[in-house]
Amino acid sequence: MLETLLITLIVLAIVNIAIGLFKKSKIEIKSQLKEIESSMIKFDSTLERTEKSIKDEFQRNRTETNDISKTNREELTKSLKM
Fold this sequence. Notes:
mainly alpha, 1 helix
């Protein structure tokens, strides 16, 4: 009878420890997931800004290239007319 009670007590202690560790790790996982989520949101906003910046830069580059090409064609036309 004493052995059965002792075994039951040991099993309950092990279960109690396991449940305590599981809850603790679950809380840590939730906080880690929140950190990851906030990092992903920050990364997404940074990526959007970078994307807009790159698009603007390409647009300016196209405009400048077109202007330079036009100027070069006009200069060539003027030099050929002379």
